[in-house]
Amino acid sequence: MSDKEFGNNDDLSLPKATVQKIVTEILPPSSGLAFGKDARDLLIECCVEFITLISSEANEISEKESKKTIACEHITKALEQLGFSEYVPDIMEVASEHKEQLKGREKKANKLEQSGLSTEQLLAMQEAAFRDAAQRHG
Description:
Shape: extended
Order of helices and strands: HHHHHH
Number of strands: 0
Oligomer: single chain
């Protein structure tokens, strides 16, 4: 894959702190291993390249199906076509977990709607809570 094919990837990146946190959580503390900044930066470049490759392939698949939105099945087909089929079961599990988390968020949003309070009442309650917190800490 070339930069000419997908545009220059210099402006694409992942948050360094997030990548560092993920790697730190993977490395066992007892190992005494450190993860250098240059290794982190290389890992970020590899991840961006991988995401670009998969999304490009998924885009081609969705276009062939005359779809305007890339769906999960386009990602899984792309992974399979590019030789990463062993990742598909794990990805489907993560996608399922993500959908469950979204359902929980929707329930929280509905909880506000079901409270029977107007937006003005909710705002007043929030402002009162902020005033109380400011007085306690302030």
